[in-house]
Design brief:
CATH class of the largest domain: Mainly Alpha
Number of strands: 10
CATH superfamily of the largest domain: ABC transporter type 1, transmembrane domain
Distance between the termini: 32 Å
Radius of gyration: 35 Å
Oligomer: single chain
Largest sheet: 6 strands, mixed
Strand content: 5-15%
Shape: elongated
Helix content: 55-70%
Length: 623
Amino acid sequence: MKSADRPSRGVGKATTADLTANRPKPKLKKVLPEVWKLVKPRRWLLLGSFLLIIVNRLCSFALPVSSRYLINNVMNRHEFHLLPYIIGAVAAATFIQGLTSYTLTQLLSTAGQRLISELRTQVQRHIGRLPVAFYDENRTGTLVARIMTDVEGVRNLVGTGLLEFVGGVLTAVIAFAILIRISGRMTLLTFCILLVFGVILQKAFKTIRPIFRERAKINAEVTGRLTESLGGVRVVKGYHAEDSEARVFAAGVKRLLDNVISSITAQSLMTLSSTMVLGVVGALIMYLGAKEVAAHRLDVGGYVEYTMLLAFMIAPVVQLVSIGTQLTEALAGLDRTTEILSEHEEDSEPNRTVVMPTIHGDVAFNDVTFSYEPGKPVLHGISFESKPGTVTALVGSSGSGKSTIISLICAFHTATGGQVLIDGIDLATIRLSSYRQQLGVVLQETFLFDGTIRENIFFSRPDATEEQLMEACRIARVDEFAERFPEKYDTIVGERGVKLSGGQRQRISIARAILADPRILILDEATSSLDSESEAMIQNGLSYLMQGRTTFVIAHRLSTIRRADQILVVEQGNIVERGTHESLYQLGGRYYDLYTRQHGLETNLFLAPGEGDKIEESETSKV
């Protein structure tokens, strides 16, 4: 189904269409193994970075520790010979700290970006191998968001975010040890206050994490609808629905804004709490410090050193608000990425063990039933056989089950009951990678990538030679229009081939199928959207393509399938008639009704076999 023709699924409220929408949210303990999978290949880099952080944070203590000697020894006792050593130590520590900070930023930022790149590639490759049913349930834009947006914050798990958090904790522990030595009473009181604040933060992060997860979901929905709207711009403009689409998008953006405001409010409350804690601790230390100095249990230099070191212990706690938010967002994105990676690939089914050799093309349906939804069958006991090199046509009213049969042949879905056999082998046991490379498909709506004519034809067989490409183009008559372009076969076709006519796009599609040299060929209404002239121009290419291949044709124009080896008339999921054009026409049943209604021959009930050919030839000669 085209994106533009899908039923509208607004983004103004939460949708349940996504395959993963109703799943329980993964708990942190379930995500941690995924974090380890990301960290494990980079464990030595992280270990080295951790050692650099230790050096970096130890150097940061040079200034507060030296301040004590500066005040007590140099200023009070006038021991000025110590001043060069104090200044030298601070300068050296600062230089080392700056150097290690630069190295850490370079190493970790690069590692974080590489992680994003690798994870995006992994998610895209995995999504590409998921069954068609998955795509039926998920919007294109939603999947794009999963690939591009959800993994963005994961860099903090390997980048500066995680190690800044670890480094902050390390600094706080070292500072705590020194502070205990200077004044145990003041430090324990401060620690109790910070401990309470830490518990509050932990609860806050547990609350804010679902907000980030919901944000990712809303963003995917909004992106999905926007992608559909842009992809179906001609339908939107054709129905003058620009304002309607703008309202739907605005509603989605409003939901996103409300979510962001909720997270900002939560972060603001945490920032307010941290500021108040900082103020309370500062006031407490001023009071207790003054009493300690007055009682001569602490000198002025020791008090200055204590207050500076206290900042080293409090700062990581305050940093938890920003760094913790980053890590929470990263874990929420990893939740969604883990969901997508847990989907089973098509070839992951344990029964798919048969690697298909070169296909001869014998296709058989043995009492096949199929249901998209449990209890609602759309095919009922379908049985037929198509011999190698023959043409089987499927006709019937819309929704009768023709496309479902083709879908089963393509292995887009698996039969609910019965068997689909390829050369006598159950298709449900065949490795799809070995089967589909011998399958060719030409659809009614030709999909072309926004590249050159050459690239679009080479898509089916990238290792083909230039001579093979030219031969395919000659047979499909692509050369007739491609040679007229200034750039010839390097002409850019535009998104979905928008710069070409329908007939030109279809000829490229046929050339692509010819180059693939498939053993089984699917023609799904390949010419029904074309005018008579365009159809006549590509019939020769189709005829060549069908030679020696087992071909299945769905056609609304019944004149195009009169020479099929067998015609299956499908109605309500059953094969109600089968035979050749002549035998079915003489039968006077459902096929006769469809054919005569389409060709305006209802009044001539006794049209002899072959007369239809004469009429069709007469009609063609007029074109």
